[in-house]
Amino acid sequence: MTLLNLSGLTKAYPGVVANDDISFAVGKGEIHALLGENGAGKSTLVKTIYGLVKPDAGAMSLNGAPFTPQNPREARSAGIAMVFQHFSLFDALSVAENIALGMENPPSPRDLSAQITSVSNDYGLPLSPDSIVGDLSAGERQRVEIIRCLLQNPKLLIMDEPTSVLTPGEVETLFGTLRKLADEGTSILYISHKLDEIRALCHHATILRLGKVVGTCNPRETTSSAMAEMMVGFALSTPKKASDSTGETVLELRGLSAPAPHRFGTALRDISMTVSAGQVYGIGGVAGNGQDELVAALSGETKTKGDMVCLSGQPIGTLPPNARRAAGLCAAPEERNGHAAAPDMSLTENALMTGNTRMDLSKNGFLNWHKARDFAAQIIEKFDVRTPSTETAARALSGGNLQKFVVGREIMQNPKVLIVNQPTWGVDAAAAASIRQALLDLADQGSAVVVISQDLDEILEIADSFAALNEGRLSAPVPTQGLTMEKIGLMLGGATEQEAAHA
Ligand SMILES: Nc1ncnc2c1ncn2[C@@H]1O[C@H](COP(=O)(O)OP(=O)(O)OP(=O)(O)O)[C@@H](O)[C@H]1O
Q: Membrane spanning segments where (predicted)?
């Protein structure tokens, strides 16, 4: 039985038709995957269903009746719930307070706590209503968002890239919850770039390319590479490094320590590591174990004692970001909106922001806009960033395309050391392969590359060495060749176990 029917949905933005005559149906109790490369139109489509975007043409029906939500409130009251990629929670408030804020008519705090506990028990989503959100892991924060949705008794739950912040164990827990919901008749529209997960979870998939439906499949009977091919229209190749040889040490951390930057941050504790020219050094860890703090201490956003961070033997721990860039160290932080990129500024302005020093984009204090525009255009071309022009605002790009832009911008500055945090977060299979290949090419040309990622497959695919970050401590590195997921799991948990034994 059909729950939601989409017929001929079309939505154009200046220079691009984001959704072009899209028609498909989502059955009751069906877990329906929405697949497509970056910019294919997935977010636009689900925003239309959630009442955030008004289609130019086409129609929707819900349970057979016309469905034209004018805003998210109307969509919610019709039974549509959505968990966004970026959580909208207040760190300083409790779980229950956060959930009450999103409700039209919240019940009394006591009743609400009881409801939260009951939903959390029923659906295998362990969470205490009184916990302060700032103390929660990414997986637990997502549970808050899911419970918030489930309290509305949704008919359709939309999830946009829900597993990118989760550990393998948390992914299993989430899938258990989603399967139970589907068994009870809730439909789920599931957006993800992780094709293996789609094969494990989804009953049906609709594939979009350039705003159009280009295919459908049963993911259980289709290989990941066949789905990737349908998405991009050609077969993908696996990234490869030309040479395994490494040169002298370029980056060295000596007992790097830094206090937690804020109440919910992580202190860095006595981190030592060396990275050589030509090496790709992978750092794995569950989100919130010091990844952002480590990137900040390396990029210069956080300053430390000078010799805690050395570049080609020179202490740089006290230098600000621009001086580090000039010395040859570039970094791409994880959060693209507002950190790696200024959303309201054009791509040219964003290119200028980190490229000014190394790409020589100003002279005698005057910015050279012509050169900056050229630099932005080169990034767009080399990294296949789908956008109408260099003057487009960063916020108008789809998530994956902006990610390609910010990572490409640092790679193209040809740094001696590149630090990237979650380089392919939210990026489709083809673009992820091209970003990974570009990182390997950079190492092949003699740069030292540090890849911090929660995607362990990514680290195994491109890194020479692996170290685990746990509560602000970094393990000793091991070669990735022959490393199994089991051993990585032990390394990720290792420091905690030692601490537990110590305690
Ligand atoms: N508000 C907007 N203004 C202008 N263009 C937009 C806007 N929103 C989306 N677009 C464009 O519409 C197209 C589809 O974008 P959309 O975000 O729907 O893609 P997506 O499939 O969700 O991509 P991703 O996987 O990268 O998140 C892209 O070319 C994007 O640049």
A: none
